[in-house]
Amino acid sequence: MPLWFRALFVTLLFPGTVAGLIPYRLAAGRHAFPLTLGPFRWAGMALLVAGLALLLLTVWDFARAGHGTLAPWDAPTALVERRLYAWARNPMYLGVLGCILGQGIWRESGGVLAYGALMAVVFQVRVVAFEEPALLKRFGAAYAEYLRRVPRWGG
After folding, report:
1. What digits encode the pLDDT tens for the residues 92-131?
2. Please, are residues 83 and 57 in contact by the beta-carbon 8 Å criterion?
3. 40 within some domain
4. How many domains does the chain have?
């Protein structure tokens, strides 16, 4: 199966569920906790579009520079340090959060915003407890230098 197809499939499966389907259902369901944001809600659409662009660019870089996907069973075989990964170690998670929070603002849903806050905590714990140690083991000194040079969430 071609890399582009694998990358598309896991992007639709994982971020598509976490940043698309779940917020959509929360905003439409009984856990929406409606907010009134007025014209400010358009900022949510801008954040959603920016988050989606960020997500797609990072998925592209995983495929092109890393020769893999965001799936644990098809992870990049090369350390990705270009473009957004030169600014933050986890821009893909930032894109997902942008999508979630953008939808929360756009759809005026306190439930989606609370879900976004919860996912930010989950991402932090996952990165610190699992991903960084695993990548250090996998890529060794190159990743240790990357850790020293590039902030976890940008800066």
Report:
1. 999 999 999 999 999 999 999 999 999 999 999 999 999 9
2. yes
3. yes
4. 1
